[in-house]
Amino acid sequence: MTTSEHLNVTAEINGVNVTESVETRATLAQFLREQLGLTGTKLSCEMQVCGVCSVLVDGEPVSACTYLAADVDGRRVETVEGLANPGGLHPLQQSFVDNFALQCGFCTPGFLMMATALLRRNPDPSEEDVKEYLDGNICRCTGYEPIVHAVLDAARTMRGAT
Ligand code: FES
Ligand code: FES
């Protein structure tokens, strides 16, 4: 349905083509969570400050709390639900578990999506690279050291290094 307050959006969400009528004012986070039931993307500050809501649009990180759902029309969206495969967890997810890189876990989807983007563009990041890339993501449990180690470990695993 396309009206003055709604429009049709067709997007690839975690590899699946979806067409939905969305409110023109709806954010991507609302679209994912309330319309598609993809509640892995969390909301906290809702003002593009904490990184909790990070998802990828055409491979680039965006804050789903402020990005309009209408703007994903014709684009590819990746959320935390798309990381694992039938064979098991994504190496980043497994590394977060192995490195105790989560406490309450609320920030974890955002960190995982940002780390996914980082390792695609830089498969062999330094510790400083990881800290710099993730510095827009806040963990209220302040588990930053294990998170950095988890990303570096996952990078090694994904490169096939020992
Ligand atoms: S909820 Fe989007 S950046 Fe905080
Ligand atoms: S693990 Fe609790 S906010 Fe990060």
Total beta strand runs: 5
In order across it, which strands form the biggest sheet? Answer: 2-1-5-3-4
Largest sheet: 5 strands, mixed
What Rg is obtained from the alpha carbons, in whole angstroms?
A: 16 Å
**SSE class:** alpha+beta
Task: List segments where confidence is low: pLDDT < 50 over at least 5 consecutive residues.
Answer: none
Q: Fill in the CATH topology of the largest domain.
A: Ubiquitin-like (UB roll)
How would you spell out the order of helices and strands?
Answer: EEHEEEHHHH
* Overall outline: globular
- Number of helices in the DSSP assignment: 5
CATH homologous superfamily annotation of the largest domain: Beta-grasp domain
CATH class of the largest domain: Alpha Beta
Taken together, the total number of domains comes to: 2
Bound molecules: FE2/S2 (inorganic) cluster
Let me know the average pLDDT. 96
> What is the terminal separation in angstroms?
53 Å
